[in-house]
Amino acid sequence: xxxxxxxxxxxxxxxxxxxxxxxxxxxxxxxxxxxxxxxxxxxxxxxxxxxxxxxxxxxxxxxxxxxxxxxxxxxxxxxxxxxxxxxxxxxxxxxxxxxxxxxxxxxxxxxxxxxxxxxxxxxxxxxxxxxxxxxxxxxxxxxxxxxxxxxxxxxxxxxxxxxxxxxxxxxxxxxxxxxxxxxxxxxxxxxxxxxxxxxxxxx
Length: 203
Known about the structure:
single chain; alpha+beta; Aminopeptidase; 7 helices; 32% helix; 30% strand
């Protein structure tokens, strides 16, 4: 499956786009600010029920530049890796995806989070983007485990994780503050050897 999905099946150097069949992901850049503001503003009501409160605040130029500085520092220090998702045919920004809270040492793990423009949901774009991010996690930064949490009622997000080969591990109480309230989450994970079994190789 993954060998067909990725245009470049090798490890991906930092700051380079990772291309799939219909989308590509790359780190945010300063030039993306206006488009990011437009997409996030248009999708405010759609994203609010599923998003941490902080993610919905300061959707303006200053907020974007502050985020961009944090993204770049986190990337440099191996703390987190942020990507934007673009359609391959139009180069339109349609969402975002991040690998947060990198843990090295014995764990070698990271937590994934993602969002998508409402008009691009239910078309397989997010499934492809998550697989591209897993390629980066396992092949480029050599992690062992990618974890993701969803609200119990977020069936669409759970479908994405299932489609990517993630396994349901359990239930975490009051895990994240979503829309101003501490909410329980279902926890899913994918391991590097499971990613290999989907058709990839980790060198």
